[in-house]
Amino acid sequence: MPVASSTATSGRLLSLLSLLQARRDWPGALLAGRLGVSERTVRRDVDRLRELGYPVQAVKGPDGGYRLEAGSQVPPLLFDEEQAVALAVALRIAVGTGAGIEEAAARALATVRQVLPARLRQRVDALEVAAADGSAVQVDTDVLLALSSAIRATEEVRFDYEAPSRPSDGEPRRVQPHHLVVRSGRWYLVGWSAARNDWRTYRVDRMTLRVPNGPRFTPREVPGGDVATFLSARFKGSGTDAWPCRGEVVLALPVADVAPFAGDGVAEEAAPGKTRLVTGSWSWAALAAGLLRFECEIEVVGPEQLRAAFADLAGRATRAGNRSGARRVSPGRG
C-alpha cells in the first residue's frame, strides 16, 4: 500500500480543516467522500489536527462524525481567498472606528497582509480608508462589549450619562438596549426607555455603565423596522427618515456644479446653466443658510416658509453688518 507524501497529507489536512470550519457537524463518511479517502484516514487526519491544537470533537450518533469546537487557545485559522480579502478590508476599516481596537486591528492587519499572496495583497493595498475629518470619538472597548452582551441577553442597562446640555443628576438612567450603531465616527446605543415611554439614542462615549444589569425585557421593533433609517430620522429631527423642512429652489449654476454638494437632495437641470434643487433640513433657517453656500442667484419656488426664512436671514445679515460698534473706515483714509 503506497504511503502518501507529506505534501499530499498537508494539503489534505488543510482541506479537512476548511470543511470543518464551513459547517458545525460533519458525518465521518461524508468527510471521507469529500476528501476522497477512507474513514480510517479521516480519523488519522483528525488526530493530527488535534496535535496541532485544533479542538476537533467526536460526535456520537447513528452516523458518527466530527465537530470543530472553540478551544482555550486560538489555533491557526484557514481562510479562502475571498475570506482573507474580506478580513483584511474589515481590519483596515476597524482602524478608524473609534472602538478602542485600533492598535490591535492594525497589528492583525499587518499579520494578515504578510501571509497574503502578492495578487491579493495588491487588492487590499488598493483600498484606502481614512476618516475625512478625524472626528472619530474613542470609546471604551469594554463598554461596547458589555452593551453588546446586554443586547444579546435582553437585559436592561443602568448608566450615568454626561451630556453638555444636561449634566447628570446622580440618578442612573435605565434603558432596554436594542441596537449598538456607529455613525459618522461615533457609537450610539438605541434603546427603549420605560420611564419616557419612548425610544432614546445615547452616545456611548458619554455613558458610564453601572453593575449589575437590570431585569430581562421583551425586545421591541424600532419604528419603521430598520435601525439605520430610524437613527437617520432622529438626526433629521423627524419621526420618519425625511427632513421636517423641505423646499425647492432654482440655482443659477449648471447641475454638474450642484450635484456633488446636494447631499440627499435631488438636483436636476431646470434650464441651460440652471439647476432645480429639492432638499431639506431640520429648520427653515438652516435650510436657507445651507442653500446660501451656493454662490449664485437663488430663486425660491416654495414653500412660503423658505421664502420667509431667506428674508429673515437677509435682515439679520444687514443688521450684523451695520452694528453701531463696528469700525468704520472714512473715505480717503487708510
TrEMBL record:
Give a Pfam family name.
Answer: HTH_11
Q: Which InterPro entries match?
A: CBASS_pafABC_assoc_protein, DeoR_HTH, HTH_11, PafC-like, Tscrpt_reg_HTH_DeoR_CS, WH-like_DNA-bd_sf, WH_DNA-bd_sf, WYL_dom
Domain HTH deoR-type positions: 9-64
SUPFAM superfamilies, alphabetized: Winged helix' DNA-binding domain
Q: Which UniProt keywords apply?
A: DNA-binding, Transcription, Transcription regulation
- Superkingdom: Bacteria
Q: Quote the protein name from its UniProt record.
A: Transcriptional regulator
* Natural source organism: Amycolatopsis bullii
The taxonomic lineage of its organism, from the top, reads: Bacteria, Bacillati, Actinomycetota, Actinomycetes, Pseudonocardiales
